[in-house]
Target: Phosphomannomutase/phosphoglucomutase
Amino acid sequence: MADLSQIVKAYDVRGVVPDQWDEELARLFGAAFVRVTRAGSAVVGHDMRPSSPGLARAFAEGAAGQGADVTEIGLCSTDQLYFASGELDRPGAMFTASHNPAQYNGIKMCRAGAAPVGQDSGLAEIRALVEEWTEAGGPPAAEGPQGALTQRDMLADYARYLRSLVDLTAIRPLKVVVDAGNGMGGHTVPTVFEGLPLELDPMYFELDGTFPHHEANPLDPANIVDLQRRVRETGADIGLAFDGDADRCFVVDENGDPVSPSAITALVASRELAKEPGSTVIHNLITSWSVPEVVEESGGTPVRTRVGHSFIKEEMARTGAIFGGEHSAHYYFRDFWNADTGMLAALHVLAALGGQQGTLSQLVARYDRYAASGEINSTVDDQQGRAAAVKDAFASREGVELDELDGLTVTARDWWFNLRPSNTEPLLRLNVEARDAATVEQVRDEVLGIVRS
Model:
């Protein structure tokens, strides 16, 4: 019997296929999904991994077996699935393991309108039903008739909707290199960019869930080396890299230098606030100081939250925020059902760049104001004990504030750091930001000295 504790995570299902889960289990998840959401209809999509079509079809059959009519949209990005859930106003399931290696697969589930399904919003109940039915040999028969399976291509609708949210018609011509990492960006980018004044230079657009060129995780510097080289060699204006399911977008400038997701968050926030002054913008506690500064300068209200898409989406719904951004290159939009879409963020960056004559590095300089360490992971035997030691070391210092909204955040006049435990691994994650690089190094080394002692 499958050990669901190993594959049901905080926000999704994810594990090795077929070792940890398979189509039989996917069918049970489909049935349980319908029972928990009480869905009369659902939409199901999948990425390009070899196991994805079979898993997605099994899930759809399980859902239909419980009476739900299922629309199968086939190959899609995760944000395209969110679009379908919002546009059709029905729960959805996306089969992907995002940036994980080829042998992994998973399910990202949402309620109608792309509302998240996590441990506290239905995922625990879904897991309990799957465990119960695994022991019983399957779910009980549905009371009503079997649901229907229909197929629908929604890529053009998705592209049209995104283009309706950002006006790119008047931008100057731009040369854009896009590294899709053999993931779903290779499927969505050509349609979204079609007809725009962009000279597209595609890299690794062939859909291949074995990821032959590099991992589809652009936050790892090793995976954007090819993109950086191509931008420099071709004199491109900008480079974009998408992860495997193309819901995250990472940006490099005309020099091939990475643009921090915090700078992108600040840039997009300023554009959204120009449309609706006075609106709220959400940012997690690891984004740069520059984000709330720019939000306030743009006439908006910044709201700080924990790391993780469920917290961001909850705060967006609670506050009516127009936009939200994370350090991990997830970008959330009120006009996209509060869901994250890297593609829409990319269109905003292209519109901002193409709407003026300067380079991207010049454009983002106003949003990139501080030095930062990036995320540094330390393997520790005792997460709680090491974090407590760091807290003790800084608690009595003059001019220092501590908070524990998410892990430990220590803030001084010229610097701050956050130390968070991983939920899935024996790691502590450190992020440091300061007014200059020397201070970043000093604070980083002091904290790591305690963590790793």
Q: What stands out?
A: Residues 4-153 form a domain with the Alpha-D-Glucose-1,6-Bisphosphate; Chain A, domain 3 fold (CATH 3.40.120.10). The chain has four domains: 4-153, 157-258, 261-340+357-365, 371-451. The longest helix spans residues 23-37. The longest strand covers residues 104-111.
